Amino acid sequence: xxxxTQSQPEMSVQEAETVTLSCTYDTSENNYxxxxxxxxxxxxxxxxxxxxxxKQQNATENRFSVxxxxxxxxxxxxxxxxxxxxxxxxxxxxxxxxxNNDMRFGAGTRLTVKP
Amino acid sequence: xxxVSQHPSRVICKSGTSVKIECRSLDFQATTMFWYRQFPxxxxxxxxxxxxxxKATYEQGVEKxxxxxxxxxxxxxxxxVTSAHPEDSSFYICSARGGVAGSNQPQHFGDGTRLSIL
Lengths: 115, 118
Prior knowledge:
heterodimer; A: mainly beta; six-stranded mixed β-sheet; 12 strands; globular; B: seven-stranded mixed β-sheet; four-stranded antiparallel β-sheet; 0% helix
């Protein structure tokens, strides 16, 4: 079974600084997808970034980028120039390539951006 | 794009009442919809998956007679919590995905419904 582990329950960062959220996963498969979702206090889950396992290049979306280490099964999220609006729960998620109705979420990391 | 609307956002009702939650994809056709339950300070737990026009597939431990799911069109899925009891109180979130069934498109989430059973 696939598992997703986020080892940092809570983190904080000063506004404008950079923060990295950790995520590791366990799978024996080679074809899969990884996601980071953000859940602000309003509770809506928002897709931040996605990575296809077959791509070696790390995905980036504006201030958000990932460090995808396939051999180490690591998928960390880096937020640059943190903004107050980045305060939220961040969930790492794993989805199989062939059974992609099965998305597994990590326990989440609560990020607080301090002014 | 990829907007999912979930309604209502909050429900408070008496024990024994049945509650219906709607999930709509506003600007895309949702071939697959998902229903999650989220307890306070915890991650999302998948309850069921439904493809348009088919019966929902429930996760182990989820009572299908308790949580009725209907996905009759490409833009609407409903979750009905039948004869709700206080232990059913939770945050319920739907998500929707377009493309052909089983595609690798990401899921887009609704705003969630906080259900409180008195």
